[in-house]
């Protein structure tokens, strides 16, 4: 998952420029990171559209990968 707009819309992690922070839409089993958004409402809407098994959490996403780490929103 790599979207050029992702860099404009999401805040970079100040500790690691390869990571961005936002609302991840994902399914745990099997793992699928659908996208990361700057808006919780948009992320929830996308999770509903994708259907059963998709969840939304705040976290950090490593650009160019499907890695997403759930964190506390500060």
From TrEMBL:
Descriptive protein name: Uncharacterized protein
């Amino acid at each position: 998952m790599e979207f050029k707009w992702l860099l404009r819309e999401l805040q970079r992690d100040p500790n690691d420029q390869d990571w961005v922070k936002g609302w991840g839409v994902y399914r745990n089993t099997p793992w699928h990171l659908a996208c990361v958004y700057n808006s919780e409402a948009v992320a929830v809407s996308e999770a509903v559209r994708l259907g059963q098994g998709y969840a939304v959490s705040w976290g950090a996403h490593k650009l160019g990968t499907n890695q997403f780490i759930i964190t506390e929103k500060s």
